[in-house]
Amino acid sequence: AQKVTQAQTEISVVEKEDVTLDCVYETRDTTYYLFWYKQPPSGELVFLIRRNSFDEQNEISGRYSWNFQKSTSSFNFTITASQVVDSAVYFCALRIQGAQKLVFGQGTRLTINP
Amino acid sequence: GAGVSQSPRYKVAKRGQDVALRCDPISGHVSLFWYQQALGQGPEFLTYFQNEAQLDKSGLPSDRFFAERPEGSVSTLKIQRTQQEDSAVYLCASSYRQGEGYEQYFGPGTRLTVT
Question: Could you read off the pLDDT of B33-47 as tens digits, one per residue?
């Protein structure tokens, strides 16, 4: 069975601070895909990134960066110079090859204070 | 283009009532998913369609839950004889095709409250 753990339930920081959201996953499959989604108060899950298990290169997109480490089964997400608009619940998710469903973590509620 | 839309956005039902939740996927998207999100939790998979075929319904919690997508576009999730534990946000997602290269795009959800 697959499992995603986001141990940080809530994080609160002051604007412009850097913040890292942790994600640890479990799967026996060798081919899988990892995702991050953002859920603002409106409720709609917004896709941020997808990584496959064969690509451990870190990725940067503006103020966002992702660190994928197979050795520790982690896929962490860092926001640099956080802004109030980054406040949301963030979900990490896993999908194994051959399956269509996403397995989500419990989410981390991020609050950026002005 | 338009995203995934869901209706109603909010639904209050008395225990024992039947409800129907609608999902309009992104035009041209073959795959459609339903997830249930309890308060403070991550979404949990309910069921998956490829066109009109329901290929996976392993997440449906009981036989009171039924989903259909008769023409391969709009989908309806029906819950019969609602119970309080059915209170949750029901999220619909669609993707262009099945397969690992395609992301799921989510709608805003329907918040169901069973009183």
Answer: 999 999 999 999 999
